[in-house]
UniProtKB/TrEMBL annotation:
It comes from the Bacteria. It comes from Microlunatus elymi. Residues 3-103 form the YCII-related domain. Belongs to the YciI family. Gene3D superfamilies: Dimeric alpha+beta barrel. This is Transcription initiation protein. The lineage of its organism: Bacteria, Bacillati, Actinomycetota, Actinomycetes, Propionibacteriales. InterPro entries: Dimeric_a/b-barrel, YCII.
Length: 140
């Protein structure tokens, strides 16, 4: 099994605005049913929706010290709305789950594999410390 992050985002302003007009109870019902499918399949590790981007903060590392600004970065296009973290055998399995997310036109889901700690140099002191922390917290 491998971990894949499914990152949901609006890819145009209109889609983002329409999402904000969606009945919240209906959205919870729809997403809840999909989440149940993930749980029942035993592939869901984590899922979170993100709050309004206008309440966010951006840290830009282009200068020293980094510049901190309020609100969304640049344009409101392609703002992340939430994510799923799944444990599935292949990227194609992650793609198949992503195709079932109750979404709408104007939205996309990006799929990225999450490397395991075993893929990093095991003799690195920081990797050793992280491995110990993960073992102590039941993550390994």
């Amino acid at each position: 099994m491998a971990k894949y992050m499914l990152i949901m985002r609006a890819n145009d302003d209109e889609a983002y605005k329409n999402l904000q007009d969606t009945d919240f109870d209906q959205m919870l019902e729809t997403m809840g049913r999909f989440n149940d499918e993930l749980i029942n399949a035993g592939v869901l590790l984590a899922a979170e929706g993100l709050d309004d981007a206008s309440d966010g903060v951006v840290v830009d590392y282009s200068s020293e010290p980094p510049v901190v600004t309020d609100g969304p970065y640049g344009e409101t296009k392609e703002l992340f709305g939430g994510f799923y973290l799944l444990d599935v055998p292949t990227k194609q399995d992650a793609v198949e789950w992503a195709k079932r997310i109750p979404s709408r036109p104007g939205f996309k889901t990006e799929i990225r594999r999450v490397p395991t700690i075993d893929e990093f140099p095991q003799d690195n002191v920081w990797i050793k410390k992280e491995r110990a922390w993960r073992e102590a917290n039941g993550q390994l």
